[in-house]
Amino acid sequence: MVQINFAEEEKLHFVSRLWQGQGCSEQYVSHKKKGGHVKMEYRPDTSNMQATTPSLTLNARPERHFIHPHGCCRFVAFHIHVACPPADPKTKRPPLELALVLDRSGSMSGEKLQTAKRAVLTLLDRLTPRDRVSVVVFDNAIDIVQPLNAVTPGFKLKVRNALRAIQARASTALHEGWLTGCDTLAATADSSEDHGLARCFLLTDGIANVGVTDPEQIASEAAGIREHAAISTSTFGIGLDYNELLLGPMAVAGGGQFHHLRTSEEIVNTFTGELEGLFSVAARQVRLEIEADPGINTELLSSYWMRSMSSRPQSWSIAIGDLQRDEDRQVIAQIYLPAQDRQEQQVLRTRLAWHIGDVEYHTAWQELSFSYADPSTCDAEARDAQVIHWAGWHQADRARRETVARNNRGDIDGARKYLKQEMQQIKQYGYDDKELLDEIAELGSLRQELAHAPMSPDLAKEQYYRQQLRSRGQADYRTPEE
């Protein structure tokens, strides 16, 4: 294990330096203040993992291995599994650090705001003094109802009393409210205490209309906070007036989950459901890393945040987020392989990285080799049916995301043309997969509905939410399981 000490003035600070690409270098993410210094820990392999420590496995499978001499594209499925030893009843779960950020703008008046308050109190009742919570409310102004503190009986009483006085009013400074909530969590980076899993819950029913409002900028900031401060973000959209094209990408970039909530009951169910999921987290800040030979390009079909890694050429990092015990995820990418130029092969390398506590682990690199062959050999190679199946599902989910985006922009003709194109592409490789044919039929029905009228806000939000759940392998907490 490598340990690096940084002087006090070089500590990681929040917000002001995140967007400028500063902070710790990529492999030294975990940090803890000890003796006036920040100690960074990096563990380059899993050989020292204890038998009781959860481990992650990665299985990368291409649809085909041969490459056309003029170049071609291939689907690759990356299957991630969290392997955990039997749970020891004596082992305590890791503590949580949560920022609960509530919209109190005018549109939240009445039952919505009262239910949001009830959801906060229900969540607090499930936590213990080992956990720490802050509560922030926003309209066009931001108020910290309670700074980050241990969830003691006295803290719960203070929050209960403070929430009674909160009334709906004014506009929606969503960005500043969310950022303030993250800041209450980031402040603990300067303390000597051990930190728990940190997540910001953002609940709103409206559209950001004060301060920063650009969805792309806000999502980029959520990614920066997740990557540099280890704070993830989940978003909870209530009703039909919020912007799913803001809250959805924000949660993806922030490594959390997006929720579309239709009723008061679903607000409480989903708050507590995600909390129960956090209790089961076994690996934090999971990311999939890909390296490729020059000339290879990668396009992600699944709904994850991907960025190029400046420290290594031809490499990408895909943020998976926090994973629970025994969880499985499928990540689908389309790999574009260049035309042959003297080389016989193209190589793709991939691995997983994740955190348990303050220590980073990663799997060994896996190599996928693609060989050039004549066109007849390429055409004769059988496709991996499972990879094709997952690729079709994730391409259909991407088609729904893009269709909602075009619908919301008013480009109905463009949405219909795009759906037709995606349906044709999926049919070209999924013609003998019954479930993919069903997906094509559903996309066709959506396209037919758009011929008569734009998608209603309810349909658009439900379409977006459903694709997000499946593409990211996440749970729908709106209706508790029997």
TrEMBL record:
Domain VWFA: 97-282
Coiled-coil region: none
Protein name in UniProt: VWA domain-containing protein
